[in-house]
Amino acid sequence: MECEDPKCPIHGSLKTHGGEIEGVVVSDRAAKTVIVERPYTTFLKKYERSLRKTSRIAAYNPACIGAKTGDRVVIAGTRKLSKTKAFVVTKVIARAVT
Questions:
Q1: Cα separation, 51 vs 81, whole angstroms
Q2: How far apart are CA 79 and CA 17, in angstroms?
Q3: What number of CA atoms fall less than 13 Å from residue 9's CA on the CB side?
Q4: Which domains does the chain have, with CATH numbers?
Q5: How many angstroms separate the CA atoms of 74 and 43, rounded?
Q6: What DSSP string describes the chain?
Q7: Cα distance between the two ends of the chain
Q8: Selection from 98, 46, 58, 62 nearest residue 82 by Cα
Q9: What is the pLDDT at residue 31?
Q10: What are phi and psi of 96, to 5 degrees?
Q11: pLDDT of 14-52, one tens digit each?
């Protein structure tokens, strides 16, 4: 399926840079946008403990990829696409079980 989206990193002219981030899509309600949640740990020196945190990243979702809620995806950094979006979904690792 060939898409006509100029913001698609595969079929369009959008360049990606930096590292890739793996995460889970937690929301796909906005048009052409998904919210990807990525868990990470940080160490608190004062208490000598690790703390589990999550970051939520808004990413552009091209029509040819079509990620849905629950999918494991890879996102890559790109130029600013809107006020909150500076990442784009590059591939779906695993689809959600329905």
A1: 32
A2: 9
A3: 20
A4: 17-94 (2.40.50.1000)
A5: 25
A6: -----TT-TTTSS---EEEEEEEEEEE--STTEEEEEEEEEEEETTTTEEEEEEEEEEEE--TTT---TT-EEEEEE-S--SSS--EEEEEEEEPPP-
A7: 23
A8: 58
A9: 92
A10: -70, 145
A11: 999 988 999 999 999 999 999 999 999 999 999 999 999
Q: Are strands 87-94 and 49-60 parallel, antiparallel or unpaired?
A: parallel
Residues near 5 by Cβ (< 8 Å), separated by ≥ 6?
Answer: 11, 12, 62, 63, 64
Backbone angles phi, psi at 29, to 5 degrees: -75, -35
User: What is the identity of the amino acid at 56?
Assistant: R
Give backbone dihedrals phi and psi of 91, rounded to 5 degrees, phi first.
-160, 160
Looking at the DSSP bridge assignments, the partners of residue 55 are 38
